[in-house]
Specification:
Layout lengths: L1 H15 L1 H10 L22 E4 L10 H9 L3 E2 L1 E4 L11 H12 L3 E2 L3 E3 L9 H6 L3 E3 L5 E5 L2 E5 L1
Parallel strand pairs: 1-3, 2-4, 3-5, 5-6
Antiparallel strand pairs: 7-8
Length: 155
């Protein structure tokens, strides 16, 4: 049923001319840098760098993991947050999806590690596979990074 709906949406997008634009947008992966000022942020964490990844949908474009990994080569962050949407389709090979995740995270250096939450396009069988590749899931859980006056709780 999901494939039927996806096929109908794809047909409508192609008919309207939006399909090509959507594919181009999905392939235009970029690394954006933003500075956020937060008055209540602990001073000891000034300059704290967070790498946020999400909506990778590895089964939508076979070349995406390589493009993302190239962008992340040499990236250093204090914390990496992954907000899910790893896949489009539940029938995607789980090990392949986890390997793609591992490949994009391999070049990243993260002081406090990699934390994640499930997206609406994620499936429970992904959790142990991504955890085996270093992702700490925050599912009904929290974690504190830093210490003392320079601690932040992730939830």
């Amino acid at each position: 049923r999901q494939r039927l709906i996806a096929g109908a949406v794809t047909f409508a997008a192609r008919a309207s001319g939006l399909y090509g634009r959507g594919v181009a947008n999905a392939r235009a992966v970029r690394l954006a840098r933003s500075e956020i000022r937060a008055p209540l942020w602990p001073r000891g964490l000034d300059g704290f760098r967070i790498l946020h990844l999400g909506d990778c949908h590895f089964d939508g474009d076979p070349a995406a993991p390589d493009r993302i990994a190239a962008l992340l080569e040499g990236v250093r962050a204090d914390l990496c947050v992954y907000t899910g949407d790893t896949l489009y389709y539940p029938e995607t090979d789980p090990e392949l999806a986890a390997d793609h995740f591992g490949r994009i995270m391999a070049p990243v250096q993260s002081r406090y590690g990699f934390y994640g939450s499930m997206g609406n396009n994620d499936f429970s069988w992904l959790r142990p596979l991504l955890a085996a590749r270093g992702l700490r899931w925050l599912v009904n859980a929290h974690a504190t990074v830093g210490g003392g006056d320079s601690a932040v709780t992730l939830a």
